[in-house]
């Protein structure tokens, strides 16, 4: 299979702006070390302050990457979750059943990994709630009880104000 050229845009939100830039540079460096991926061009854009926020900044890096295979492309999509992906070369791809099997197995592996994480977090949440119920029943009651009527009214009014 011929090499695949794609554009990735990776975005970060945070503060201070220097850390946002540093994080983008580290992310680009990490991606450059991925097997089957070669960064051809990297442009880190300056952080800008997010409107109506308290000192939050956003910035992005624009990467042109050459991938050895479609599997390598999708591996990086899952690992780095870019906000935008554009494959521009080749225009058409011919795939073998080996290529499809490789991609399907990588996808399945990643989905199983996410499923395991979700199950572990759910179990940990239940454990923490049980501990909280035993050791701090007042706090447990506060976080598991539905909001009181006046809180519901206040939340409803807040939503109406926000939505116009």
Q: Short summary of the structure?
A:
The chain has 164 residues and is an alpha+beta fold.
Note down, in words, how this protein is organized.
- The chain is built from 5 helices and 5 strands.
- The longest helix has 39 residues, at 97-135.
- Strands 1, 2, 3, 4 and 5 form a 5-stranded antiparallel sheet that branches.
- Helix 2 runs parallel beside helix 3.
- Helix content is 54%, strand content 23%.
- With 164 residues, it is α+β, with helices and mostly antiparallel strands.
- The mean pLDDT is 89.
Topology, element by element:
Layout: E1 4-14, H1 17-32, E2 37-44, E3 48-49, E4 57-67, H2 70-80, E5 84-89, H3 97-135, H4 137-144, H5 149-163
Antiparallel strand pairs: 1-4, 1-5, 2-4, 3-4
Helix pairs in contact: 2-3, 3-4
